[in-house]
Amino acid sequence: MVADELDYVVGVDTHRDEHTLALVEAATGAVLAQQTVASNGRGYAQALRFAQQQVDAARVWAVEGAGHYGAGLARYLSERGETVLEVGRSPRGERRLSGKDDQLDAVRAARAALRSEPLPRPRSGERREALRLLLVARRSAVDVRREALVQLRSVIVTAPERLRQELRGLPVQRLLDRCSRLRRSTTPTPDQVAARVVLRTLARRIEAATVEADELEREILVHVRALAPELLDEAGVGPIVAAQLIVAWSHRGRLRSEAAFARLAGVAPLPASSGQTSRHRLSRGGDRQLNRALHTIVLHRRQHDPATRDYIARRIAEGKSRRDATRLLKRYLASHLYRLLQNQEPLLA
Questions:
Q1: What's the CA gap between 249 and 261, in Å, rounded?
Q2: The whole model's pTM is what?
Q3: The 31-38 sheet, strands edge to edge
Q4: Helix, strand and coil in the chain, % to nearest 5
Q5: Which residue in 7, 52, 111, 205 has its CB near the most CB atoms, within 10 A?
Q6: Residue numbers of the domain that contains 263
Q7: How many domains does the structure of the chain reveal?
Q8: Given a cut of 60, is residue 16 above it in pLDDT?
Q9: Is residue 43 part of a domain?
């Protein structure tokens, strides 16, 4: 645990315009000092001076939101030799019972680091940050495409009869081609004119979002091949899944073990026994995008990989449920992919 290795923890509650710091003694959990600084270069320097002036001993920084509002502070501290850990947001129930303000949140971040198993370090690396940004943009484009496609089909359901009969049986690509070329109706009824305008607008939005997502995926593939090309040889691992794995893992030393990676992915087994029932379940915490990436691999392998199908059938024959078999498979995948990332030799750092 962190408390066994250090003397002090500086908890940081991060926001867009300012960060609140709380210096906590590891041995007792007592709050020694607090300060608020601006979230800019001058404020980061002030935060470091605050810690140096208060204590001259082994310390660690527990930064809440190190991948978002706290990213600048985390980079600043890491570049100056400080140890920075990434702390998750405190549970809502704890905030409801104990109250919430910036100073309390900073203290909670420090104490969460003290009572926790080793926490992950913030992500680092220019290419990894580029991957993260590209994934965010592509996810947005895919969401726009999906939502617009749902809206398009909904408009077709209520469209004038002749137009509905023309469009309802078409496959997606032909449907988009037809709708994108629709012109204003020759009939003067407002509903027919509006239906054609809306269908054309939605179809063109879908096509634009599709082009955007494809361009971003090609850019993502370039970075994946530079950082961890061996991932693409794994069954069920395409550019998007590989990029999510790289972003979560980030670099050697961010996560101490396979178990830590499994916990981050939300696939670490948790006891769920009661009475005469002895079983485990998967954690519902961690990085849900990483968990989704593992789930995508499992779905692909269940359909296309005979070894995976045989494994699941064997587990079910042993008395496991299909859900339990999938849980075991996800845990195995987390270990396997973690070892692959740890041992790969990237073309570029």
A1: 7
A2: 0.73
A3: 31-38, 18-25, 8-14, 59-64, 84-87
A4: 60, 10, 30
A5: 111
A6: 230-343
A7: 3
A8: yes
A9: yes
